[in-house]
Amino acid sequence: MAAIGNSNLDIFPLALGGNTFGWTSDETSSFEILDAFTAGGGNFIDTADSYSAFADGNSGGESETIIGNWTSARGNRDDVVIATKVSQHPEFKGLAPNNIAAAAEASLKRLQSDHIDVYYAHYDDDKTPLVESLAAFDQLVKDGKVRYVAISNYSADRIREWLSLSEENGFAKPIALQPHYNLVTRADYEAELAPVATDNNLGVFPYFALAAGFLTGKYRTREDLEGQARKRLATGYFTDKGLDVVTALSDIADAHDAEISTVALAWLLEQPSVTAPIASASKIAQLPALLAAPGLKLSADELTRLTDVSGRI
Fold this sequence. Notes:
The chain contains eleven helices and twelve strands. The protein is α/β, with parallel strands linked by helices. The strands form three sheets. Strands 11-10-9-8-5-4-3-12 form an eight-stranded parallel β-sheet, covered by helices on one side. Strands 1-2 form a two-stranded antiparallel sheet.
């Protein structure tokens, strides 16, 4: 198990992404995935109030609703740690104080819970003074509706400002950071965000840990992307240098009789600031490879190979 920053939350070192629930996984499939994840030792589920407003026919909140239905059906709310986010739901855009309060209430209702374990600011809102947003998050903590606050998609400077304001005003301090980070997207996180996370003991949960499926090895040509739900997301990773990374992953996976995705997640887990990668599954068959990552020990040579080849991007 891994502790999240300065919190008292202990989690399995792989977070299950809930972005597929209500999008590429219907409720029945989502329940199967959640059941298998917890049966395999997983206990940390990451979602957002906006998931999956991006999908045709959806309006946002679908993922939270499915997770809430699942915890209610299984009676296991206290056995799992649930993170969700605010600022991107079509009805609750931005981080104005009233919006944060209203969005949190809506999320709690969908999750069928009296608390959110980790509540992220999903994206920065430069139209609202940061101190006002932080006061609203702090009030949720004081009211017992949120256990801990966290940050996603903020610049290093804005994270430092958040930390400073928290200290100055006695607000609840963030415990975690959720950045875009994987073997084919390294530079910004490692240069700018990793030092802030390390210096302030923020738990780090990389999203797109498998580069929208690119780092599973199933997209070796652009034709492989045609007709795929993740085509728009995965296309941005598709380069010759990116394919070199997939080749290295494939070689190492073969040596361990493991899946390519397992190796990609295992590399992330070896990065000193990372608490747990976030990975999602649309089908239950994809889950064993994800759950295997914390148990896969890569050699120093294998880590070096992956670091070197991905560093050329």
